[in-house]
Amino acid sequence: MEKAMPDTTAAPTIDDVAREAGVSTATVSRVINDPDLVTVKTRERVQAAIEALGYTPNFAARFMAAKRTFTIGAIIPTMENAIFARGLQAFQEELHRRGYTLLVSSSAYKSKVEEEQIRNLVARGADGLLLIGHDRDQAIYDYLDRQHVPVLVAWSYDTTAHAPCIGFDNRAAMQALTEDVIKMGHRRLAMISGVSEQNDRARLRIAGVRDAMAAQGLDPASLDPIEVPYNIADGQAAFVELIARGTKPSIVLCGNDVLAAGAIRGAEQLNMNVPDDVSITGFDDIELAQVVRPELTTMHVPHRAMGQMAAQELVGMIEEKRKGVSQNLKASIVRRASVRAL
Amino acid sequence: MEKAMPDTTAAPTIDDVAREAGVSTATVSRVINDPDLVTVKTRERVQAAIEALGYTPNFAARFMAAKRTFTIGAIIPTMENAIFARGLQAFQEELHRRGYTLLVSSSAYKSKVEEEQIRNLVARGADGLLLIGHDRDQAIYDYLDRQHVPVLVAWSYDTTAHAPCIGFDNRAAMQALTEDVIKMGHRRLAMISGVSEQNDRARLRIAGVRDAMAAQGLDPASLDPIEVPYNIADGQAAFVELIARGTKPSIVLCGNDVLAAGAIRGAEQLNMNVPDDVSITGFDDIELAQVVRPELTTMHVPHRAMGQMAAQELVGMIEEKRKGVSQNLKASIVRRASVRAL
DNA sequence: GAACAAAATGTAAGCGGTTACGTTTAGCCA
DNA sequence: TGGCTAAACGTAACCGCTTACATTTTGTTC
C-alpha cells in the first residue's frame, strides 16, 4: 500500500486552492471573505477548487492575520447539573444566529481552574467572554482589560462590580422568597447553602435570607447555614445533619433546586413528611423542581431570557466596541407543594 | 485623557518579553516550552519579564508554528439534560490531568450543526475529537481523515463503524433489560424512544427491545415505539398519547431516564399508579432516576469510567499516532420500584 | 593557556492566512 | 481608437510564535 505518490494527505492550504484555480491567494481570500470583490467567473472557479480540495481555512492563521475569530467563550462552574444548561443553550442559540460560535469550559467551581480556562480561551482568540458571577481576583479583570477582551457576567446583578452583567438580584430574590414564607407563618428557618467562597450567588442568597429575617423581626444571626457543594447527595446529607443538630426548623431554605431535591430525600430518609413536618424551598426553577415530590416552591429565574440577552449584549460590546450595559432581570416566586402555611 | 504615550495597551508579545529581558525570542520560547535548555539565571530574568508584562503566549501563533494545541474538542448532542454531563466531566478531568484542555460544543441533535461544529473545532486546531454515537455522514469522516484529526466515539460500541469507540452495546443492554421485565411477567410492552434518525443509540435500543421480544416468544413487529425528543415534557406527552391509543401496556420501556421521568408524570396526569397500573423503565441511571417517585428501574451506564477511558484512549491516539482501540463497557440492570412483577 | 566539546543563546525561515498597495484589465465616452 | 477611471487581481509584508541551524560562551583536559 506504500505507493510513492505525492503527499495528497496533507490538509490543503490557501496556496493549494490558489494554484488549483489559477489565481493568487489574495483572490481566494476575497472569495471567502468578501465575494463581491471578485468576478462571478473567477469566484466560481475558486469555489470549485475549494470544493474539489475540501479546503477549510485555518482559524489560527486567520486569527493571526485578522484578529477576529467570531468565537465567544463561556466558563461555567459546572456542567454536572442543569442549573446553567438552559441559559447557556439560549446563549448559544442567539450567538449562532449572529454568526458566532460558542466554546464552553467548566471550572468545577475552582477559581484556579477558571483562571486557567480564561487565559486559554483568550489566548485562543475568543472575541468575548461570558462568566458566571462576579467573585474572582481583580488580577483576572486586569488581565482581560490588557488583552482588550470584553467580558460579560451573567447570573448576578451588581453594578458596583468590575464587569457589566445580565442577571438578577440574588439577594433581593432570596429576601422576597424568605419574606413570603415568613408571612406564611414560618419562624424557625434553616438554610442549606452552596459553598459561598468565591461564589457571590451563594453568599448573596444567604444575605437575602437574613435581610428578610431582619425585616420581619426575626434574629438574622440565628441563621446558621450549612454550606455544601451543589449536588443532590450533599443536599441530602446536609438535611440530615441539620435535623441532627436538634433545632427543629419548620422550613429549610435551599440555595438551589438541586440542594432542595437532596433535602427532600433527606426528609424521606428521616421519615419526615414534606411539607407537613417540614417545608422546603429551592431556587432556580429548573426542570428538577417539578420532578420531585412534592413539587418545589422555588424562585423562578428567567434562564432563557438571560442567556439570550447576554448574547445580544456581548456581541454588541464586541462589534460596537462599547462598554456593556447591565440589566437586572426579574426573578419571581413559584408556589408549589413543598411549602405549607402554618 | 488622550495623552500622547506609547501604546502600552496592546497585549504584550514574545518580542516585548525578549526586549525586556534582554534576550532573543528563541530564548523566551525555550523558557516557556523547555526550561531546562536555559540557564537558571536567564530563565529567572525571562520569567520576571513575563510576570512584569503579564504576558500570555498567543495560541494561534503557537499552533501555527508548532502544530499542536493540547486541546481536545467534544461535540455532544445536548447540554440541556444531564445525560452526558457526568461522562463529560470525567472526560475533562482526565484530560486536565494529562495537560489538555477541553472545548465543548453542543449540536442540539442536528447533524448540520454538528458538522459545522466539527469543522470549527478542527480549524481551530483541536488535536483530537470526541463524538457521540456513530451516525453521521461518511463525508465528515473523510474530512477528518484528510485533516489527520483523531476521532473517538463514545456512548456506543460498534466495531463495524468507521471510528474507534469507547462505549457499550446499546442493543444488547436494552435487550437484557427487556428480557428481564418479560421474565417478570410482562407481555404487553410499549416503548417511548428518542428520535432515532441520526441517532444510533436510540435506534439500537429499539432494536434491543425487539430482540428480547423475539427471544422470549413475543411478536417484535407488535412494538410500535413513539419517538420524541429527549425531554421530560415530551416524555409525558408521549405517555399520554400511548395510553390514548387504547392498547393497555403493562410496561412502558423508555429510551432514557429523562423520557421515563416524563412518563411517570404522564401516568400521574392520568391518575395511573406506577408500578401498580403500569411499570416504567429508564436507561442511563442518571441522578434523576433516583429523584423521581417511584425510583426508576433502569440500565446503569458507567458514565465516569467511559469518560475517563475515552480521554486516555484519545490522548494515546494523539501522542502515539496510533489507531484507537475500541472498548465495550458493561452496562448493568438496576432494579428499583418503577417495575413490578406480574 | 590552548584545544576541543558541550552547553547556551541567537538568527531567521517558516506556519497559513489577510490586506495595503501596486499593477493589470475592462468599461466607457468622445 | 485613444484616454481615462474604476474594477479586478496580484505582490508581498505582516501577524506571533517555534525550531533548525549557526554562533558564541562555558567548561574540561592536558
Can you walk me through this structure?
The structure is a homodimer of 342-residue chains. Chain A is of the alpha/beta class and 342 residues long. The first copy, chain A, has three domains: 14-57, lambda repressor-like DNA-binding domains (434 Repressor (Amino-terminal Domain), Orthogonal Bundle); 70-167 and 303-329, Rossmann fold, CATH 3.40.50.2300; 170-302, Response regulator (Rossmann fold, 3-Layer(aba) Sandwich), CATH 3.40.50. Chain A has helices at residues 14-21, 25-33, 40-53, 59-66, 85-97, 111-123, 138-146, 170-183, 200-215, 232-244, 257-269, 288-291, 303-319; strands at residues 71-76, 101-106, 128-132, 151-154, 165-168, 189-193, 226-227, 251-254, 279-281, 298-300, 327-329, 332-334. A six-stranded parallel beta sheet of chain A has the order 2-1-3-4-5-11, sandwiched between helices. The longest helix of chain A has 17 residues, at 303-319. The relative contact order of chain A is 0.12. The interface between A and B is large, with 53 and 53 residues. The structure holds a DNA duplex (30 and 30 nucleotides).
Write the layout of secondary structure elements.
The structure is a homodimer of 342-residue chains.
Chain A: H1 14-21, H2 25-33, H3 40-53, H4 59-66, E1 71-76, H5 85-97, E2 101-106, H6 111-123, E3 128-132, H7 138-146, E4 151-154, E5 165-168, H8 170-183, E6 189-193, H9 200-215, E7 226-227, H10 232-244, E8 251-254, H11 257-269, E9 279-281, H12 288-291, E10 298-300, H13 303-319, E11 327-329, E12 332-334
Parallel strand pairs in A: 1-2, 1-3, 3-4, 4-5, 5-11, 6-7, 6-8, 8-9
Antiparallel strand pairs in A: 10-12
Helix pairs in contact in A: 1-2, 1-3, 5-13, 8-9, 10-11
The structure holds a DNA duplex (30 and 30 nucleotides).
